[in-house]
């Protein structure tokens, strides 16, 4: 598909592609009031088609973000309780601004977001969709990058597809956080998120496409010697994050961005945490067990 001239019908929604790789923006849609069922049905179809949707210039509060997100399914309350919104635990707060003083804290609030990952891949039912509300966003840096893992799988040669068919990966949140230099999880948090296996190649439940389901939450490939596991993970990650599969999104204040974690991986880019303010509210829709 030539996304620059995408003519997929969207009925009442005004949608245009963000790039020739992935993503689209939905214009002139207010996410505050409840959406009529026929509008939401078109929006869901657009989400499956584009994988990534941007809603510019939104002015929503916490309850409105939660209500919009919940239309897509059950919401997660994150195991890392230090990031939970104090009044709305479904919202995960990513902020470098001290709530009491209003000043920047001078450090990144969650370095784990700087590495390629799929949200909640460390759970039995990983994320279907992530919805971010950019209340304050940096003027320089702080982009979010996305890699199309369906396209990455399809571009593998037949020998590699045969090699990885049936392999399973072990996803471990505590290990991935330690790898990024974050404080270790508490014993209670580790107990809630033990390492879990998922297929390395999954089938998307809505599109039927095969997807390379890989993330930096992966500690190793089950059943392979450690050196072979690490080599294969690095080879596949290098393949999947080539520029031809990656779209980099430049935030604007009050953007809402949502994406499909089943067919993409993402990462944030760095920014000056002392000079730039970044306040993001995140909700995550829980998906199905990967098959």
TrEMBL record:
Highest taxon in the source lineage: Bacteria
Pfam families: TauD
Keywords from the named record: Dioxygenase, Iron, Metal-binding, Oxidoreductase
Coiled-coil region list: none
SUPFAM superfamilies linked to this entry: Clavaminate synthase-like
Domain TauD/TfdA-like positions: 15-283
Signal peptide annotation: none
One Gene Ontology MF term: dioxygenase activity
InterPro entries assigned to the protein according to its UniProt record, in alphabetical order: AtsK-like, TauD-like_sf, TauD/TfdA-like
Family: Belongs to the TfdA dioxygenase family.
PANTHER family named in the record: ALPHA-KETOGLUTARATE-DEPENDENT SULFONATE DIOXYGENASE
Protein name as it appears in the record: TauD/TfdA family dioxygenase
């Amino acid at each position: 598909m030539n996304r620059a001239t995408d003519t997929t019908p969207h009925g009442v929604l005004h949608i245009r592609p963000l790039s020739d790789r992935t993503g689209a923006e939905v214009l002139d849609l207010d996410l505050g009031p409840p959406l009529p069922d026929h509008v939401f049905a078109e929006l869901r179809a657009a989400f499956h088609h584009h994988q990534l949707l941007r809603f510019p210039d939104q002015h929503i509060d916490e309850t409105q973000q939660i209500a919009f997100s919940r239309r897509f399914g059950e919401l997660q309350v994150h195991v890392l309780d230090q990031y939970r919104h104090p009044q709305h635990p479904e919202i995960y707060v990513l902020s470098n601004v001290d709530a009491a003083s209003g000043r920047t804290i001078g450090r990144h609030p969650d370095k784990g977001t700087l590495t390629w990952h799929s949200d909640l891949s460390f759970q039995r039912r990983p994320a279907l969709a992530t919805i971010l509300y950019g209340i304050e966003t940096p003027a320089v840096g702080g982009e979010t990058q996305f890699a199309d893992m369906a396209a990455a799988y399809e571009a593998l040669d037949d020998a590699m597809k045969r090699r990885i068919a049936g392999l399973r990966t072990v996803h471990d949140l505590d290990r991935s956080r330690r790898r990024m230099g974050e404080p270790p999880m508490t014993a209670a948090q580790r107990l809630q998120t033990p390492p879990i296996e998922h297929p390395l190649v999954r089938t998307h439940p809505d599109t039927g496409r095969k997807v390379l389901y890989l993330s930096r939450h992966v500690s190793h490939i089950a059943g392979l010697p450690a050196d072979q596991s690490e080599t294969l993970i690095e080879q596949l990650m290098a393949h999947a994050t080539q520029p031809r599969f990656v779209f980099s999104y430049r935030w604007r204040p009050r953007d809402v961005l949502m994406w499909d974690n089943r067919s993409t991986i993402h990462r944030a880019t760095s920014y000056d945490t002392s000079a730039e303010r970044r306040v993001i509210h995140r909700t995550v829709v829980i998906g199905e067990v990967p098959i």
